[in-house]
């Protein structure tokens, strides 16, 4: 068929909130996602609805991330109508099926989100080039409940990440310690460097963004909601990031406000 110009360079623009956190931070402006996220954080929401909502939200998020960041290629693909019309081929852009991708399960809150993303990528890409790793990492707290660091209990990593799109689907971006540790680990793997690393969060705080953008300036951060609910009223009336040092989303035990509760605990109904 003759090439249709509309399919040769697909335009895509992510709907996102304006902010001053830098070009690598994307705060998705989606009424559907924010509605589902509000329901997820409600104290009335229990299992199995919690898992269903997290799966729905990451189903939306992986679409946003792939459309925004993944490489594309031009293809000529016959359709079923080829039997009746020799012109019946789609000629245009698709997501490049040959790109390599790695989904990192930051257990335990990231296990279900990573599985959702991994499954979707196996439909879009050549499954031989899609991998899921498992990284067992958790925050460490003192006797007051304050976060003092992170602990890496082990990992199952299937190889290098040369030229791969590496995704970290972790629901809560609270303090940033876990993400910084995970990104640095992948940066130090033998072999070539990743094509891009992407953190995928349901909720982030200004404190998280400050720490992670400084420690990992090349990391792309995509989040459905920015929570800074402990900030002063005058700060909440300003564009996010305008008074970044004065924005506050973490309480004294480093949980997010308004937040959604500890999703690692809630997803697994395990509070130890």
> DSSP helix count?
7
Number of strands: 10
Overall mean pLDDT score? 92
Write down the CATH topology: Rossmann fold
Structural class: alpha/beta
First CA to last CA: what distance? 61 Å
* Silhouette: globular
Commentary on this structure:
With 272 residues, the chain is an alpha/beta fold. The protein has one domain: Rossmann fold. It has seven helices and ten strands. The strands form two sheets. Strands 1, 4, 5, 6, 7, 8, 9 and 10 form an eight-stranded mixed β-sheet that branches. It has a two-stranded antiparallel sheet with strand order 2-3. Strand 4 (101-107), helix 3 (111-124) and strand 5 (130-141) form a beta-alpha-beta unit. Helix 1 (31-41) runs antiparallel to helix 2 and helix 2 packs across helix 3. The longest helix has 21 residues, at 49-69. It is globular and about 70 Å long.
Lay out the secondary structure.
Blueprint: E1 25-27, H1 31-41, H2 49-69, E2 72-78, E3 89-95, E4 101-107, H3 111-124, E5 130-141, E6 147-156, E7 165-169, E8 172-173, H4 177-187, E9 196-204, H5 206-215, E10 220-226, H6 233-236, H7 263-268
Parallel strand pairs: 1-10, 4-5, 4-7, 7-9, 8-9, 9-10
Antiparallel strand pairs: 2-3, 5-6
Helix pairs in contact: 1-2, 2-3
């Amino acid at each position: 068929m003759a090439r249709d110009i509309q399919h040769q360079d697909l335009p895509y623009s992510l709907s996102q909130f304006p902010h001053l956190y830098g070009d690598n931070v994307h705060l998705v402006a989606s009424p559907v996602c924010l509605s589902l996220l509000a329901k997820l954080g409600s104290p009335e929401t229990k299992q199995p609805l919690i898992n269903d909502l997290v799966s729905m939200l990451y189903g939306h998020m992986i679409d946003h991330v792939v459309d925004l960041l993944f490489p594309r290629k031009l293809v000529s693909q016959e359709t079923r109508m080829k039997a009746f019309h020799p012109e019946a081929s789609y000629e245009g852009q698709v997501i490049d099926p040959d790109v390599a991708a790695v989904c990192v399960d930051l257990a335990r809150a990231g296990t279900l989100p990573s599985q959702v993303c991994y499954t979707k990528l196996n439909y879009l890409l050549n499954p031989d080039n899609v991998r899921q790793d498992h990284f067992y990492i958790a925050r460490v707290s003192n006797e007051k409940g304050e976060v003092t660091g992170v602990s890496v209990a082990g990992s199952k990593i299937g190889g290098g990440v040369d030229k791969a799109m590496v995704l970290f689907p972790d629901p809560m971006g609270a303090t940033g310690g876990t993400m910084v540790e995970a990104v640095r680990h992948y940066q130090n793997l033998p072999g070539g460097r990743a094509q891009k690393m992407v953190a995928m969060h349901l909720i982030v705080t200004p404190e998280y963004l400050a720490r992670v953008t400084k420690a990992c300036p090349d990391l792309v951060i995509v989040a459905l909601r920015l929570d800074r609910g402990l900030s002063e009223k005058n700060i909440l009336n300003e564009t996010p990031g305008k008074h970044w040092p004065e924005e506050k989303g973490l309480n004294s035990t480093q949980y997010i406000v308004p937040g959604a509760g500890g999703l690692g605990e809630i997803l697994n109904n395990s509070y130890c």
